[in-house]
Description:
Layout: H1 7-21, H2 46-60, H3 66-72, H4 78-91
Helix pairs in contact: 1-2, 1-4
Amino acid sequence: MATKEDVPRFVKELIAAEVKDEGYVELSAAEITDHLSFSDDLGLDNLAVMSIVMALEIRLGIEIPDDILSQNFHGETVGDLINIVIGCMTKAGKS
């Protein structure tokens, strides 16, 4: 079972796979930092970010409500998404 400590690694692995699959840039998960912008630094559009969000929901067994994404996340940084996922895990009672 995934823990909150696993979230940054999971997020960064999924981002690395997405940017590679989409042909944007080739980065390893280790090269992806919390401060990277999805659009400016990684070249990901909203559809690509939503694909990452859906994969995280499946992998972690959580739901990230659309209203939380729209209120707290505007495609800004990797760290923003990590914080939202951890918050949803906490709310769902997942460790």
